[in-house]
# Entry
Amino acid sequence: MLNKKYYTINEVTTFCKIHSHQLRYIEKRFSNFVILKIKGRRYYTNENIEFIKLNLHLTKIQSQEALPNSYEMLKKIDNLIYKFYQVKMNLCLTN
# Structure
């Protein structure tokens, strides 16, 4: 790691090997995670980077847990759409 006082979002995502949206999620997820914002730009300290590395596994586990729920919801939506078209086709055939 470089010996700087503050790092940009691009530098942090490179150090931690994560995407910027994951970094923003960590900011929202952990209330004790405080960063410096100047004119709308985010700046991170060495402590922030260490915190991210220590807690990264938690956010990965939570995002993996969310996937099955999302997948199940999409399956239900697909089934409802299929049933809707079946009903629609039956109505068209009977008229």
